[in-house]
Request: fold
Amino acid sequence: MRRLGFISFFIFFSCSLWEYDDPSIAHENESPETYLSLIANDTIYAHYDSTNGEYIYAIDEEPLPGMVWDTLDHAFTSITTSKQHLHWWGEDKDGDIIGYKYKWSSDSIWTSTVEEEGLFYVPIRTDLDVFSFEVIAIDNDSQEDATPAKLTLPIMNSAPEISFRYRSNPFVDDIQSDTSLTFPTRTFVWDVIDQDGIETVIDIYYALDDTCNTCWIQLDAAAYSSITLTDIEPGYHRFYIQAIDIAGAESNIAFFPDDTNPNEPGFWRVIPVRGDVLLVDDFVQDSQNNAQNWYRSVLDSLLGADQFSVWEIGKELPYSSSDVSANLKYFNKVIWYAAYTGGETYHEAGSSLLNFVMDGGHLFLNAPELKDSTFSWFPLQDVSVINPSGRLLSGATLESQIADSLDLVLSSLVAIRVKEFSPDSSEFSFIKSLYKLEEADSTDEWSGSPNVCSLGRFQISHTEESGKVVLFSIPIHNGSIPVLEGGTSAAGFIDYLLKEEFTE
Reply:
């Protein structure tokens, strides 16, 4: 067998200009020869200690004067990781190579193969260990190389590192609070890195609230980069995550909330689901929650205290859309009011809103300005500004298309551009207008009676329809005061939706 790493050159001189082997002379039946190759990085020195008959490996250290550094055992003089990509081949003078068998020093049996390369993950159990790999070529006469090709590899294991994906946990600035509030569903998303290769990370462990030995739950690292917890008990919680590699090396433990990170909230509290009505506060600039308090008072009066739930979004929706969908699906009716002055998130929740409605949920969304006209949950055909000046004066009447008793009157100036719209009739199985602005006179900026509130429903099958979705483009509250309190309060309209339209 030829030794890897040693190449000899022989030069022969002959009186004949051309000399060739005589092909008529048959070779005797000879054993094949086997060869190995590997590229390794990072300097390591291997020193044979004659006092105890063992090799000593030093990482990134220059050999001391007088020390003899061994290379006779074909030990690579460089550190490699536990991920090894080896190549081998064989030669046979009197026939063909038909296969190989190989074995790591950690293996008890040989493995047969016809391949000439392999990707291996050496089961290293310490920070630095030494492994050898042997491979034998087999020829078509079933003869084996009597001296296997062998490599000795010093291998250093690197522990994996784990962290939550950037912005998958809320920032204090996003929620404007030191406490993250969620319903009993919460998704955690993480990233793992390992210098030995991500394939060497085999297990992810997570725990809720306690890191005792029996508290951890195991996941397949190749299959999971996130986990959605459901049915979490109301109260304060902490979530832990850790990665383990094939060598058993453990990563750091990442946790949320992380009270050492000033950008993240210091507390995470799960709030219970109350009632079948959800009030969604998508008005981040209303820092005093004036709009939320008004809606709460309306729902307290209509449904009773603690008979509904409130979700205050803040600047950003949950990172995982599955959490948005889960929050909605806890309920049958959703009242979602958007910002009067920008910063709303409802357009980013479009797919979750559509799924909610298609699953039979009823949605009322008060969306001043209608900045986006491509809603999948409420397709629009035409959209135009009612008041190009950006002023809609108090006293204007919103005429109910259902009953005169539900007419609404602007009780305050609306100081933003609002829009009229027409639902896309080709997308809905049922449409009806609920409110139109009063017929324009010579002093108004609009013409005719602009539609500002409509109800739509989708056809799911021949026998099944979606839930009802209502879009209202005139603001009900501007963050300081309610806007539609002239005459009949907008509370009467909400009462009508909850008790009549959203009960069918």
User: Anything to note?
Assistant: The two ends are 85 Å apart (CA to CA).
